[in-house]
């Protein structure tokens, strides 16, 4: 398994072994690179930019749609690689590949509709316009939790806009990226338009931020790493998009449909073993329904089938690695020591070979505990209680994060108030799965800068150029 630079598969003198988190067995070896390979890829992207940007949006879009079809043709193979590299259940992995193709197809269609603006002039001899043009070469750094869809959520709009790209995938899931680039090759993407550099995160990331050819960096990952990249990018006044950490509140009012709320918590908390940026982190349940809610949630969680994601019957797979497993258990044990109580779970699954943690529900959790402040990224559902709407809004917003918020209520007026008052880039009202390709995805506060998805996602990769043309005579 190799790097992909300027349309060629490249081997280096360094390799890394990828481990299956469900079995701790080797999945395969990949060649890795660093600064030199990143520089070579950036130069290739710069050369390709000259011709790629000159193509019509329709021509670029047709290629992107062809690539999406190639992804779907090998959906099962790519899904199997996702599961082997990072552990999610195979049925969810198939859904991820379908989602990735949907993002690529939408952006392929949107490439035809990158419009400018005509501005009314104050002078009858002037014509005022705004052009949107591709920003240039972009660097993209993607995470392991959605190792295929995150690539195409970034490269889809970038390529549609007319940019060229260098991608550094997560070290845990490089073979997923390789499979995507094979689809790029089969789908007819010209050489150098998209390049893949696997390897040293610091060396590759630094080259992306230091090299003046790279005009924009798009990153999904932790807030701490995002801040470091922002500091580096500032040296060249490089544009950035950052999708960073989250600490999503899930608010359940006493008029909510409890079955819907419980099922939605299971979906938003235990899908991907809780390893998503929009996973529920704090469940706020109104006091009058806390006992019934806790009981129903525990029953639903205990029914989850935990195991190797390659088993079609698996509902929840392992955590990605041993460090993630220890982090989750540490948060749980600290919460229990501080007064939380176990409703179900709360232990490492010692009877399994991989990095498995029992699906967990905690009660009596308070705002002062670490689990109320730090992103868990694991299958732990802590239940907080509240009395009033005003109280829960203040507590839900009391975090440096602002990515995703959920609220369940059957009161329409309250729904509207919560929509406006929750300080999050995305809000799901009675909806646990609001994310779609044609809507903007992104956060407020320390959860990020910029948006992915929708027209906003394409515009992130474009410069606006204002043009004023003055003529010798009145235009009208």
UniProtKB/TrEMBL annotation:
Q: Which residues form the Aldehyde dehydrogenase domain?
A: 9-467
Keyword line: Oxidoreductase
Spell out the InterPro entries in the cross-references: Ald_DH/histidinol_DH, Ald_DH_C, Ald_DH_N, Aldehyde_DH_dom, Aldehyde_DH_Superfamily
Keyword Oxidoreductase among UniProt keywords: yes
Protein name per UniProt: NADP-dependent succinate-semialdehyde dehydrogenase
Q: Which organism is it from?
A: Lentibacillus halophilus
